[in-house]
Design goal:
Structural class: alpha+beta
Order of helices and strands: EEEEEEEEH
Number of helices: 1
Largest sheet: 8 strands, antiparallel, barrel
Oligomer: single chain
Radius of gyration: 33 Å
Distance between the termini: 89 Å
Shape: elongated
Strand order of the largest sheet: 1-2-3-4-5-6-7-8
Amino acid sequence: MIAPATGMRYGERYVVDSVERAHHFPGFFLDGKYYLGPELQTAVGWLEGQQFLYDQLDPTGEPVFAGRVAGTIEDLTLILADGARLTLSPEPFRAQADLPVPVVQVRPAPAFTQRPSPLLVAAAALLVGGLLLAVNRLGSRKRTR
């Protein structure tokens, strides 16, 4: 359950507005969970009441935020542990069907105007001739038996 004091509602996405010199949150909130990508595979953060727990690790494997508590959310404002205040803005979901489809220009392939290499033609003729000779010899062996 989302705490009413957060200002968030179920079924709505919220993004954290970035400000200079504050931690960047590239994902979005949806139904009390925080996701990095639109595929909604794994939540990397979540709300416990008004507390925002964010499961981000530094390069040494330690949590970026002490106790994984990034801050609290109050009336669509994320208040970080260092006092920075970041606004949460509703972001309408755009399904793939809603996105504009790029127009792709299809051109017919140019007609083959170049003649094949004489060496390639000779090699193909030798190959076909060799196969015919092999089939002919196999046929004559079966008749003599």
